[in-house]
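W.,

You were right to be curious about this one. When I first looked at the sequence I had no strong expectations either way, so I just let the prediction run and decided to look at it fresh. Below is the sequence, 121 residues in total, followed by the output.
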Amino acid sequence: MGLFSRTSATDTFPWTPLTSVAQLEEILGTPSGKAKLFFKHSTRCSISSMALRSFEREWKTEDDRFELYFLDLIAHRDVSGAIAEETGIIHQSPQVVVVKDGEVIYDASHHSIDAETIAKL
């Protein structure tokens, strides 16, 4: 690896990639008793990269109260639009939207994303 390697904690963080609208619909339509956390990340934005690294570093929740989904906005813009449509939360990047039992229980963007606050939900 070089000095400017693009490897991040995302490579080892327990994200499930979110890659299609059909997958999103299945996630939202399947009751699990868990909160579903969607992290919308722009791979072309340094602020988004900083927010992602900060979230991954601060996330200490090891239990299974959350399902963690990672959305690459550049590759899957349609999925981001579907999240906005399904939740009523206007798209931003970076952004976290947490849904439980069909209700949005948390949303934040940019520097307002706070892993500790989410873990307390």
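Here's what jumped out at me. Residues 1-9 have pLDDT under 50 and may be disordered. And, maybe more interesting for your project: The helical segments are 21-29, 46-58, 77-87, 115-119.

Coffee later to discuss?

I.
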